[in-house]
């Protein structure tokens, strides 16, 4: 069998095994992350929890989707030398590219907070590291977030 005839089970550009709803969720997560990053830069904290904590949960799931897409892309790039396939209509490629931009935006938001205020946003209630690092106090900024909240 010639080397080019072998199939290794990996995804190629025309056959993406990533379900379309997952790709759609990855694309839908981007505006949530961008809005959260806006809140982080302007108030020092992420989105408010919202009713029953649903907005905060959506924010957390959105960040997990973005980091998951970037992680899968980096893993595939290291393992095969190429990133994720473009997927149907290029949607997975779009989600991948936007996820990299979101991660870059997160790093810029963090650098902005550290540079301007000398603090980092806290990850309460999941992780409280205020004993180790200066944590931003969203109550002291006086800068309203989205819609003046």
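^ structure tokens above, recovered residues below v
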């Amino acid at each position: 069998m010639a080397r080019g005839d072998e199939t290794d089970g990996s995804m190629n550009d025309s056959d993406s095994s990533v379900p379309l709803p997952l790709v759609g969720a990855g694309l839908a997560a981007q505006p949530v992350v961008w809005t959260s990053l806006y809140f982080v830069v302007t108030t020092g904290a992420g989105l408010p929890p919202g009713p029953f904590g649903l907005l905060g949960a959506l924010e957390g799931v959105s960040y997990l989707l973005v980091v998951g897409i970037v992680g899968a892309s980096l893993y595939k790039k290291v393992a095969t030398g190429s990133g994720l396939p473009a997927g149907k209509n290029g949607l997975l490629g779009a989600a991948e590219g936007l996820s990299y931009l979101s991660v870059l935006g997160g790093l810029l938001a963090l650098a902005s907070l550290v540079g301007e205020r000398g603090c980092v946003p806290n990850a309460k209630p999941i992780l409280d590291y205020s004993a180790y690092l200066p944590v931003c106090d969203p109550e002291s900024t006086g800068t309203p977030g989205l819609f003046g909240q």
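Residues 18-148 form one domain.
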